[in-house]
Amino acid sequence: MLHKLLKLWFRQKSGDGLEAKLGYRFRDPELLAHALVHRSFLTGTDLPYESNNERLEFLGDSVLNMLTTEYLYKMFPDDSEGDLSKRKSAIVSGHACAQSSKEWDLGEYVKIGKSEAKMGGRGKESILADAYEAVLGAVYLDGGLEEVRAILNRFHFPRIKEIIVAEDFVNFKSALLEYAQGKLHTAPEYEIVGEDGPEHQKVFTAQVHLNGKVYGCGKGPNKKKAEQDAARVTLEMLKAEEPADNAAGNPAGNKTKKPARYLGRP
User: Fold this and answer.
1) 181 pLDDT exceeds 60?
2) What is the secondary structure of 93-144 as a DSSP string?
3) Annotated catalytic, 61?
């Protein structure tokens, strides 16, 4: 019943609604309605769990991964398997999907519960990314692989260069590990030293230790991002120390090679 009501609502808005933004008109708009039902919207109802968008998200995630792999294989013929994997992990990440979803104003259309809405759910990357993949899954079922490819070619793949060079996808932890092992002959250690804020807006604080000395301190909405931020700060501190080291121990003033940028997740 829920999906049939939403189906009528989407049809009434089809002139200037989500279908127009997608550039795709659904044969069965109930699929699109289904793709936009977050599980929180069903809280306190008698509707079955399967009425949310998670199954379509599962399907859309697989379709996105496959088409991204195909695109990268064709666009970067000289890349190794490892380099292609790094690019892919950035392109199909939740952050990248959430950013692309904003071109559709997807947050306006997602159906979420009142409590989730009060906590800023319409702007949450996880909710937007899941809905984005669910919409791709719905398009796949309604129109097939070519229609999904066309949508990605319009909205997602043109952003690849922006995505893979974004600071969010630089793996500072990997870069710091390589730097510390090569220059200091040690490995960084991370410690979570703080956890503040309400449950839905936690802020974690992490520190980096090198040879028993505390270096960078970083913050983030989860432990991984806090550690990434701490690693970034530590790299900046170590690089700032390089000129003094070179002047004392390297009269030629040779510059130390900058650590490589790594794409992907920690």
Assistant:
1) yes
2) SHHHHHHHHGGGTGGGT-B--HHHHHTTGGG-HHHHHHHHHHHHHHHHHHH-
3) yes
| Highest-pLDDT range among 12-21, 64-73, 162-171 | 64-73
Q: Predicted confidence band at 255 (pLDDT cuts at 50, 70, 90)? A: very low
Tell me how far CA of residue 201 lies from CA of 39, 192, 221, 222, 226, in angstroms: 20, 17, 7, 9, 14
Strand positions, DSSP E, the chain? 189-196, 203-210, 213-220
CB 38 within 8 Å of CB 113: yes
**Per-residue confidence at 5, pLDDT binned at 50, 70, 90?**
low
Which domains are seen in the chain, by residue range?
Answer: 2-165 (1.10.1520.10), 170-249 (3.30.160.20)
Of 57, 61, 130, 227, the active-site residue reads 61
57 alpha-carbon distance from chain centroid: 15
Question: In this prediction, what percent of the chain has a pLDDT beyond 70?
Answer: 79
Among the listed residues 19, 30, 130, 133, the single catalytic one is 133
The pTM (predicted TM-score) of the whole model is 0.64
